[in-house]
Structure formats: structure tokens, C-alpha cells
Automatic annotation (TrEMBL):
Gene3D superfamilies: YVTN repeat-like/Quinoprotein amine dehydrogenase. The lineage of its organism: Eukaryota, Metazoa, Ecdysozoa, Nematoda, Chromadorea. It holds the Pfam family WD40_4. This is Coronin. Residues 413-580 are annotated as: Disordered. InterPro entries: Coronin, DUF1899, WD40/YVTN_repeat-like_dom_sf, WD40_repeat_dom_sf, WD40_rpt. It comes from Panagrolaimus superbus. Signal peptide: none annotated.
């Protein structure tokens, strides 16, 4: 079993620090000896507790680079050392701080950062008699804050009104840490009496209690997303260790491991979206990270990132502030003892440059699920979630393009007209039924009075298409009829737009039935072609063989519209007679064009034969 490699997408997570040229430096970090992170970060700002009179802390935009001036504006927060700062989960401009001056305060940071020293809080929470050790925001309810005081008392506040909603007493000794569960219905505390307690957020009742780590040094506990408890502490021999516990049996850990004998308190930094746990100690040079899942032994060691500088303060960036295009899974801001803010980026290696959906499930949104009043009424709600990459949610969906076409049925009449027995299909029509004689006469009169397009002839099929081109006046008449003209002038929808006349193969080859004028023109063309061919043959036999030259063909000029009209009017009908209507004229014109094409083919064939004979004579073949 030892040779089996554990399968996990986070097994190869690695850390890549940002170059010092792109980091901040010369930050005056506080020198007080208190077990807290001294730093808090969100996608907009990083807050660091400073060294100075009273309890100041600095708020700096996260994208700032370079040295921090000594006169850089800060938050003059408290009259005594500031012990901890925490950003609001629903507003990146709101931060809470607690101090040894027995107060907790809430501050509103301008959107572009501080341009002057800020010394007026939005809300000041005064309810403790001793120093305020730690504080935490409710994860789903807006403006709900919990604070722990040196008198071993917990207070839950409605920050919007500045009043205390609940006072929880019962801890016999100093409270080390406070952390809410996933939906904020419960929270877990660690105490100097070495016990771990799970308390109801609405009533303050201790739901479960168990024995924690044996060491007397501070221990910390947090809730995991599935309800388990993760704790860090010390043994009797002052060895640091961690433990994973079931909420129903806090005294017996599911997994436990000893790490080293360092003196710094281990702070658990948990990413609930990926299940990764980072352990960072004050004064350490290393950060260990693990993956926690349901497979025994539950807590799986991944790697340790080590630097040469010890860490004095640590900030953990929320998932909203990560670079998802580079597969960044975690970002930790580490403030060294020299005042340099190192940015540690943890990546999951992937071959593809595309957005990795499996690495970024929906994370906590900045929209609260409850108001402070609803929480005070005893309500609980799961946090609202948001996509880490909102643009990828739309890009990953398949794009379905629907072709928009006109409704064919909408243009048909509501009821088919009654057909007379004379309008039945005839064998001469070819396809379908012919329209009634009255409609044909109407169509012919309309065709005679309106300009028409030239017919299109299909040589292979022998189909003559007569298309009626609408003019602007025709379109205007149709528009006026649609807008409410009389039904007599309305166009009949049953008249076809195209009339197709089929000819037999014999008619297509021989020319079919022609008018006397067409027959005379065809005979004259045949005589001219024969004379030209005969004269060309005689000249070729009488003259000496010329030097061979490639045969050239003169480009055929396209006749103009007036020329075409004159040809149609002169050759399309017998001498001294006019065509009866426009349809017969167009049919005659089409037949004449067909005959001309046939004769042109024969002329080209004769020209090719003459060229071959000429070339053969030239080379004596």
C-alpha cells in the first residue's frame, strides 16, 4: 500500500513568491508580544498594526509598490496597543479593530485609501471592562460582530446600531480564539483551561465541550466546511501539533501529528473552497500546507515553503482577490521583521492556459444572506455564493445560434379559393394546375403594362423562366393595397410569380415551331455560315501554307440594351405584324437566342477544324 500514489489535483501545489521589486517595504510593524496575526487583507487593502504611540494601524492599497514613507497616513485607532484587525466580509472598506483600551471600533476606509490620518471611527463598541482579546465577523449576517474580553466574557454586537445583542459568560479563564462555522449558527472557542467549546450563536448555550491540547500555551480552533474542528496547540513537552476532531467527540481527535518544538503559536489559515490548510507560526520561516478530505488519515501533507526571513505578521487573501487566469489557489501576505511585505502565491500546475473550472468552485459572495435584525430573531442561512470568474460562466455555456426566418404560413390565404372544373391540371402545363382564364387574362394585361426582366434559359433542362420584376410603382401599389385599398385592386395571391414552360427535346434541338420571320432568319444564317465555310476552305487550298500562329478569338462584345430591343422588335415577329402581347414576344426572343447559341457552337467547331487543317498544312502533316 505504501507504493500507491494518492490521487489529488492539489498534490503538486507550489509557492512562487513575487519579486521584492514589486512588493512593499519599510513597514513599521508593531513590536508587542501578543498572539494574533497583526495583519488583514482583502482585494482592495492590506491593514497592518504599526509601531507607535497608542494603537495605530496602517491601511495600504494592495497594488502599491515600493517604500512606505514614514509620514504615510494611518488610522489612529486606540489609546492603547491595537491587538487585532479584521476586514468585513461584505464591505471591503469596513474594518474592525480591538485594543487593550477595552474597546472595539469599526472604521470606514475611503475607496482610494487614506489621504490623511483617520481618528474618527464609524462605531465605537464599549462593553468590556478589560482588554478586548480577539474579534470575528459573522460569516452570513451583515453588521454582526463578536468580541472576547479579558474578563472572560463574549459579546455579540449589532454594529449598525452599536448595541450588544447577546452577552455570553461561562469561560473560567482567558479566551484564546473565536471562530464561526460555515453558516454562523455556532462558533468554537479555545480557552486557557485547555478546553474546546461549541456555543450556539443565538442563545449562548454551550452545545458541546471537550478536552483540547495538553500544553499550557495558547491553542487555536476553527470550523471546517463539513462541520469538523481543526485545532493547533502544544503538548506537555512544548511540541507543536495539530489535530482534526469530530464535533460530536471533541476529546478524541480523528487525526493528530506533532511537528516541531518551536515556541510560536501555529495559526491555521483555511481555504474552504479547496480544502487546503496552511499552518504559519509567528517567528517561523516556514509555511506548511495540507489537504483535508474524507480519506484516512484525513489530513494529507503536501509541502513546506521556507524562506530565510521570519514572519512577524500574516494576511490571508480571500478567493475574490486571486488571479484565476494563472491557476492561483492561495495568496498569503507575509510581513517580515525587517518591514518587507512578501507576497506568496500558491499555484496548481496545469498544462492548459484555459480557465480551470474545477479549481474554482463558487465562493462566498459579498452579499449577506441575513440582516442583523433577522439574526437577532434567531434565523440562520447559508452564505450566498458567487462565481470566482463571472466571465467564464457565460463563456463555458454552449452558444446556440437560432436562424431567424420568416413565417411562410403567415403569407398564405386563410382559406383556399374554390376552383372551377376548367381550372384542373392539363397535360401541357407540366407541373401543377393552371390558374383560371380570368386570372390569366389579368396577369397578361398586368404583364403587358409593366416592364419585365429578360428571361433566363436553362440549356440543359430546356426551361424558359419568365420573371416579373417589380418596379417601384408596383411596390407602392402593393403597399397601398396592404394598407387598406379596395379588394379589386389587391393582388391575387394565387397568381404564381414565375411561369415555367417545358419544351420537348425535339423542339429544343430543332427549334420547335417558329414564326415565318424566325424561319427566314434561321435560313439566312445557315446560308451565311455555309458561304463563309466554303470560302475559307477555298482560300486555304489556293494560298501557300502560312507560318503557324496560334488561333485567336476576338472577344464578343455584349450588345447594349437598345440593340437587344431592336433585335427583338425586328426579328421576333413576321414582317408587317406586331406581337400580340409581351409574353409571346419574350418567348420568341428566347427561341431566337437558343438558335443563335446553337449556330455559334457550330461556327466555333468549324473554326477549330480550319485551324487544325491550317496547322497540319504548315508542318506538312
Amino acid at each position: 500500500m505504501s507504493g500507491i500514489v494518492r490521487q489529488s489535483k492539489f498534490r503538486h501545489v507550489f509557492c512562487k513568491p513575487v519579486k521584492h521589486d514589486n512588493c512593499m517595504s519599510d513597514v513599521r510593524i508593531t513590536e508587542i508580544t501578543w498572539d494574533s496575526l497583526f495583519c488583514a487583507v482583502n482585494p482592495k487593502f492590506i491593514a497592518i498594526i504599526n509601531k507607535g504611540a497608542g494603537g495605530p494601524f496602517q491601511v495600504i492599497p494592495v497594488n502599491k509598490v515600493g517604500r512606505i514613507d514614514k509620514d504615510y497616513p494611518f488610522v489612529d485607532a486606540h489609546k492603547a496597543p491595537c491587538l487585532e484587525v479584521v476586514w468585513s466580509p461584505f464591505n471591503d472598506n469596513v474594518i474592525a479593530s480591538c485594543s487593550e483600551d477595552t474597546t472595539a471600533k469599526v472604521w470606514l476606509i475611503p475607496d482610494k485609501g487614506l489621504n490623511r490620518t483617520l481618528n474618527e471611527p464609524v462605531v465605537e463598541l464599549c462593553g468590556h471592562q478589560k482588554r478586548v482579546n480577539t474579534l470575528a465577523w459573522h460569516p452570513t449576517a451583515q453588521n454582526v460582530l463578536i468580541t472576547a474580553g479579558g474578563e472572560n466574557k463574549l459579546l455579540i454586537w449589532n454594529v449598525g446600531t452599536g448595541e450588544a445583542l447577546l452577552e455570553i459568560a461561562g469561560h473560567p479563564d482567558q479566551i484564546f480564539s473565536v471562530a464561526f462555522n460555515y453558516d454562523g449558527s455556532q462558533f468554537v472557542t479555545t480557552c486557557k483551561d485547555k478546553k474546546i467549546r461549541i456555543i450556539d450563536s443565538h442563545t449562548g448555550e454551550v452545545l458541546r465541550e471537550g478536552q483540547g491540547h495538553e500544553g499550557v500555551k495558547p491553542q487555536r480552533a476553527i470550523f471546517l466546511q463539513d462541520g469538523k474542528i481543526f485545532t493547533t496547540g502544544f503538548t506537555k513537552r512544548s511540541e507543536r501539533l495539530y489535530a482534526l476532531r469530530n464535533a460530536d467527540d471533541l476529546s478524541n481527535p480523528l487525526a493528530q501529528d506533532e511537528l516541531d518544538t518551536s515556541n510560536g503559536v501555529l495559526f491555521p489559515l483555511y481555504d474552504e473552497d479547496s480544502g487546503l490548510m496552511y499552518l504559519a507560526g509567528k517567528g517561523d520561516c516556514a509555511i506548511r500546507y495540507y489537504e483535508i478530505n474524507e480519506d484516512a488519515p484525513y489530513v494529507h501533507y503536501i509541502n513546506t515553503y521556507t524562506t530565510s526571513e521570519p514572519q512577524r505578521a500574516i494576511g490571508f487573501m480571500p478567493k475574490r482577490g486571486l488571479s484565476y487566469n494563472e491557476n492561483e489557489i492561495t495568496r498569503i501576505y507575509k510581513v517580515t521583521t525587517k518591514g518587507v511585505i512578501d507576497i506568496l502565491q500558491f499555484f496548481v500546475p496545469r498544462k492548459s492556459d484555459l480557465y480551470q473550472v474545477d479549481l474554482y468552485p463558487d465562493t462566498r459572495s459579498i452579499e449577506p444572506a441575513l440582516t442583523a435584525e433577522e439574526f437577532a430573531e434567531g434565523k440562520d442561512a447559508s452564505p450566498k455564493l458567487m462565481a470566482v470568474n463571472p466571465h467564464a460562466a457565460t463563456q463555458m455555456k454552449p452558444k446556440v445560434q437560432v436562424a431567424k426566418k420568416a413565417n411562410i404560413l403567415a403569407s398564405l390565404p386563410t382559406q383556399a379559393p374554390q376552383q372551377s372544373p376548367q381550372s384542373q391540371s392539363s397535360p401541357q402545363s407540366g407541373y401543377g394546375s393552371s390558374p383560371p382564364s380570368s386570372q390569366l387574362s389579368t396577369a397578361r394585361s398586368t404583364a403587358a403594362s409593366t416592364p419585365q426582366r429578360s428571361p433566363r434559359i436553362d440549356d440543359d433542362m430546356g426551361i424558359v423562366r419568365v420573371e416579373k420584376g417589380p418596379t417601384s410603382s408596383g411596390r407602392q401599389s402593393q403597399t397601398s393595397s396592404r394598407r387598406g385599398s379596395s379588394p379589386e385592386n389587391a393582388p391575387n395571391p394565387m397568381i404564381p410569380k414565375q411561369q415555367i414552360n417545358l419544351r420537348s427535346r425535339a423542339e429544343r434541338d430543332e427549334g420547335g415551331s417558329m414564326t415565318p420571320g424566325q424561319r427566314r432568319a434561321a435560313a439566312e444564317l445557315e446560308r451565311i455560315k455555309r458561304d463563309q465555310a466554303r470560302s475559307a476552305t477555298d482560300d486555304a487550298e489556293a494560298s501557300p501554307p502560312p507560318r503557324y500562329q496560334p488561333p485567336t478569338r476576338e472577344p464578343t462584345s455584349t450588345p447594349s440594351a437598345s440593340q437587344r430591343h431592336s433585335v427583338v422588335s425586328n426579328a421576333g415577329s413576321p414582317a408587317g405584324s406586331e406581337p400580340q402581347n409581351m409574353e409571346e414576344l419574350l418567348l420568341d426572343l428566347a427561341k431566337m437566342k437558343q438558335l443563335l447559341r446553337q449556330h455559334e457552337r457550330r461556327i466555333r467547331m468549324l473554326e477549330d477544324q480550319i485551324a487544325d487543317v491550317t496547322m497540319a498544312n504548315a508542318y506538312g502533316l
